[in-house]
Design goal:
CATH architecture: 3-Layer(aba) Sandwich
Number of domains: 1
Oligomer: single chain
GO molecular function, one term: hydrolase activity, acting on ester bonds
CATH superfamily: SGNH hydrolase
Strand order of the largest sheet: 2-1-3-4-5
Pfam families: Lipase_GDSL_2
Organism: Candidatus Thiodiazotropha endoloripes
CATH class: Alpha Beta
Number of helices: 7
Largest sheet: 5 strands, parallel
Protein name: GDSL family lipase
């Protein structure tokens, strides 16, 4: 059994746009991916570590525990042995209380990559490969989250390219989620059911190669 750790936020947790509800495991993209890999004969388990509001390396001034760097090394240690770590973060770095641009978020991803590789895993256990996933472009935020993400669509311009550059510099695999899906028209930030399905299936080929 090969284990994959997904370290992510609400786009992967599976929040249903416009609600506080959650898609079921077989509906959200990590579940879609796992089921597809199993269908192909891969003995694999995806460990979902997806926290709503998680940033790359920044603090949420209103809610504790959203700095993605804090405790990451221990999560690698806890879940080892791991064949792959998937990083899918960045969206929350552009919440309205932060004055960040794409470069800042990409540098946050860089810090997370370094932390993963520094993790104190047990002797003889493999250093996991890393797949960095860039989130799809934020649209104009709508509904209840509009104030929280006000201006995010402007601040996040160039995010995928900036994350791709960091992934390349660190010899990590890269996938641009925006190439296969947009964000929801309902709230402009999260993913609809069809978008989860599209992303999970689109990742299957690349992940299968990485864990081979």
């Amino acid at each position: 059994m090969k284990q994959i750790l997904l370290y992510a936020d609400s786009l992967s947790w599976g929040i249903i746009p416009g609600t506080r509800d959650r898609f079921s495991f077989n509906q959200r993209w990590p579940g879609v991916l796992e089921l597809e890999l199993l269908h192909r004969g891969n003995q694999v388990r995806i460990i979902e570590d997806c926290l709503n509001g998680r940033r790359t390396v920044f603090e949420d001034p209103f809610k504790a525990g959203r700095n993605g760097l804090v405790g990451l090394e221990q999560r690698i240690e806890i879940n080892s042995p791991l064949s792959l770590v998937m990083l899918f973060l960045g969206t929350n770095d552009f919440q309205s209380m932060h004055n960040h641009n794409a470069w800042h978020a990409a540098q946050g991803i860089n810090s997370l990559i370094i932390a993963i590789r520094k993790a104190p895993i047990e002797p003889g256990m493999p250093n996991p490969k890393i797949l960095v996933i860039a989130p799809p472009a934020i649209q104009v935020p709508k509904g209840e989250i509009a104030a929280k993400f006000e201006g995010a669509e402007k601040k996040a311009v160039g995010l995928a390219a900036a994350i791709k550059h960091v992934a390349s510099e660190n010899d990590c695999a890269f996938f641009d989620a925006g190439m296969v899906t947009s964000t929801s028209r309902v709230d402009g930030v999260h993913l609809d059911l069809e978008q989860h399905m599209n992303l999970g299936n689109a990742l299957a080929d690349g992940v299968e190669k990485l864990i081979a």
